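Ticket reopened. Same input as before:
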Amino acid sequence: MKAQDDALIAVLLGDAKPSQALARWLATPSGRRELAAYRQTLATLQQRYGEVRASAAGGVVYYCSLPSPIGRVLVAASDTGLVRVSFRLTEAAFAADLREQLGAEPVRSASHTADIVHQLRAYFAGERRAFDVRLDLRHVSPFQRRVLMAAASVPAGQVVSYGEIARRIGQPRGSRAVGQALGHNPIPIVIPCHRVIAAGGRIGGYGGGLPTKRKLLRLEGALAATG
Amino acid sequence: MGSSRPLADLVERHRPELLRYLVRLLGNEHDAQDACQDALLRAHRAFARLAPESNARAWLYRIATNSARNHARRRGRRQGRTVDVDVDGLPAAGGRSAEQDEQLRAVTQAVQTLPPRQRAALMLRQFQGLAYGEIALSLGGSEAGARANVYQALKKLRAALGDSR
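Engineering reply: fixed in the latest deploy. New output:
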């Protein structure tokens, strides 16, 4: 069933929306079987080739941690710029992620991360509202980069909706994709995805947990202290 | 060499992803490092001829793909030969069932016996994040051809999994 295979692959890869004919086929036993088989193929492919070892590929990446009102924050910077911020991982898991995802050798270094640590301390102390730091977004897809840069242009104290970000990057129907791209923000806080909220003033989601999102917005004065 | 700085920037920016691409194509880091070295040398020689408005990333992938092909040829490991698949060397070997191991082995084997162009198109689409237009720039041919190569590859991988489920 060559045409059906092609249509099914197109849907699974996100190249096309399912047609009615495909939907009908997928409701049949053979359609269901093929759907499961192709999903299994893609999952196995991902498992085998998704993360490959290339130890020296990404050079060295320097990381450090600092205490903050939202818990311990970990930051990592390459020679290009700030590449990761995390407040959910342990230090060991953070270092493992750097090795795995960036193919870089993680090295703990206060001196290489001093600038961003200083800026983050000032931010959490309420003494700084914007960051001045070079970012390393080489590992981010072009679409996600556009979304992140649009989020980065929202100043502290303000919030915008996912739909507004979608409009700003010229994809007005893409608010779900925008939400996903922000959910995988590798540099939260500095790229303020917490300033993007759901329509109608609802707070929406946050990779770092909703209490953290509220805390950050309160710190910036975008949410009433009791909110 | 006043023009070498932009190339250095370009290489620094894309070297990690090119290396991972070459690991995916060649199956191990050692060969990938060699091929990457070779690709960057070629890029250095050809950089002066790169038109300023061209897609530099696709250009680097084209060079890397050619290096991988030469590398595989030199080592006499042409596609279609039997290949050793060391599933135990893969990440997270602990938590897999025998059936998953079998599927991993089948898919890996099938990937290594794909025609080079299909394998390259598949990796570029699924793991390197290139659009079909960029894949066409990297591998030659049309955008539709690039997409057909990816789909053909997936159909072969799916067939390799069989119906034993």
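Chain B touches chain A at residues 12-17, 19-20, 23-24, 29, 32-33, 90-91, 100, 103-104, 107-108, 111, 123, 125-127, 129, 147, 150-151, 154-155, 157-158, 161, 163, 165 (CB under 8 Å). The helical segments of chain B are 4-26, 29-46, 56-74, 98-112, 116-126, 132-139, 143-161. Please confirm and we'll close it.
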